[in-house]
Amino acid sequence: MKIVGIAGSNVGSKTRIAMDYAIKQLQVQAPEAEVTLLDLADYELVFSDGRQYWEYEGDTKLVAETIMAADALIIGTPTFQASIPATLKNIFDLLPVSAFRDKVVSIIVTAGTAKHYLMVEQQLKPILAYMKAHIVPSYVFIEEKDFYRKEIINDDVLFRIERIVEDTLLHHQAVKAMQQAKNEKYDF
Predict the structure, then answer these.
(1) For residues 107 and 122, is the Cβ–Cβ distance under 8 A?
(2) CA-angle at 139, arms to 71 and 134, nearest 5°
(3) Which of 20, 52, 119, 120 is the most exposed place for a label (fewest CB within 10 A)?
């Protein structure tokens, strides 16, 4: 199983801190899985211009192909201006409409205040649904007050990250079982 974590911004540190913890939990809960973290701050990505994702070069092609090869994804995003950052939206624009078909996707969000908790429901989940993802219903929302000196200090947040990792793995097993049952209906 290939699991990709995405730290969906090229600035700031809080989303990366949360994603680092999620990746550690993935390695504990699914040691057999191939786990990759794509921190968008580490890559030189071009803006989507309508080409197929495999026609891009360099980091853009690497990031797109890594996402397309994943069985499950955990998307971490900060909240900028009550929305997702442009770097993350660009990733969605680089990929085909059905990029997340048969993939399980879960979400970790960081924000300055609780005012923006509905951003996930009103913006991110509709994009993921449009791209055919199996979305883990719950998500982790982390506020500014949950961090101190580049660490998560709220034990409840750590527990919720552990739980979203577990839920992601369980949803992947369920989707895999559904696909297998569908495939068994056919003789080929």
Answers:
(1) no
(2) 35
(3) 52
Provide the whole-model pTM.
0.95
Which amino acid, 181? A
Q: Which two tokens stand for residue 122?
A: 């009103």
Q: What is the 3-state secondary structure (H, E, C) of the chain?
A: CEEEEEECCCCCCHHHHHHHHHHHHHHHHCCCCEEEEEEHHHCCCCCCCCCCHHHCCHHHHHHHHHHHCCCEEEEEEECECCECCHHHHHHHHHCCCCCCCCCEEEEEEEECCHHHCCHHHHHHHHHHHHCCCEECCCCEEEEHHHEECCEECCHHHHHHHHHHHHHHHHHHHHHHHHHHHHHHCCCC
Flag whether pLDDT at 186 surpasses 90.
no
Per-residue burial over 176-186, b = 16 or more CB atoms within 10 Å of its CB, e = otherwise: eeeeeeeeeee
Q: Residues near 181 by Cβ (< 8 Å), separated by ≥ 6?
A: none
